[in-house]
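Quick question, first post here. What does this chain look like in 3D?
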Amino acid sequence: MIQELSPSSEEPLHNRTTERATKITENILKEICDWYEKKRNSKGNVNTNVMTAGLYMTEHLKKKVPLFEKDYLTDSQVKGAGGSQAKAILQKHGESRKFTSEGGRTSRRTRAYAIELAEIINRKNKEVGIDRLGEQERKQVAFRLQNWFVKRIQEDYFDKQQISVEIDPGKPVRKAVEALVRESRKRGGTTAGAVAQHLVGAKLALRFPEQNISNESYTTADFQTNRAGDFQVGDTAIHVTVSPTEKLFSERCKENIYNGFRPRVLVPEDRVAAAFQLAEVAGVSEHIAIQSIEDFVGTNIEEIAIFSTEEIRLGLKSLLLEYNKRVEEAESDTSLKIEIPTNL
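> Answer (accepted):
Ran it through. Tokens below.
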């Protein structure tokens, strides 16, 4: 986990200084990493107070070292602790998602963790001489340590939260699908692709309850299961992707056509134009249906609901419940599940 030491955009340094700051940071992180990992519970989770203590103590390190209790503690909490401070620190590192509202301010555990971190920092200071660094170098070390804690928050908090968006059943269903795809993209990696695939799978399962709609992990390749696409309904091969590629059209879709399938490619709304261009380059645009995921899922849910407001609300809930069921069956990453809004 000792990784991702991004330099501060606030304090640009010469390469020589940055290299020295990096070496000192890596030395300190070896012990902080061990400390952090010991805080995991039996399920492998880490309390957010551990994370917030790391944010605040690295912020105090920017000001001075060694760290004495009078420098970073009040009678009941860590100085500067609070939701607004945690938010401000996270934003310095490019993270804008909503974290804990209290930021560990009211928990005595944050205070205890801060004391433990101060002991580590002070002990490492005696070993590597942080207090002998210039102000800019010390700030660089503090920023890099802080960046490490931000990465832990992203991996151990944000990435383990269920996907949550506001859904208004009074709006077209495509708006709800659009919000879910947009939110999943923020997580990076393969999250958006997995969410898109399972939303389409859930919609197909609701639309064709009498058929066996396949449910595979997002990372399962078509050829491993003899599938013509991500889904096969009748003689139509459905491909779901958030990033259409030339290979999809020039190889997979051409193979579908050769084998007698009708290829249908589903992409986010902002990728539809690109998908059409790729299909034209591959010379198969006349034989392929290209549609946005938002319309494919949204319109069908409204049709199933016979365009009734109350039935659409129930249809949205059924879509999300079916989606979560399919994620539980096919994926090991439960953070792909979607939180069901209370207004549904």
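Residues 15-37 form the longest helix (23 residues).
Residues 173-336 form one domain.
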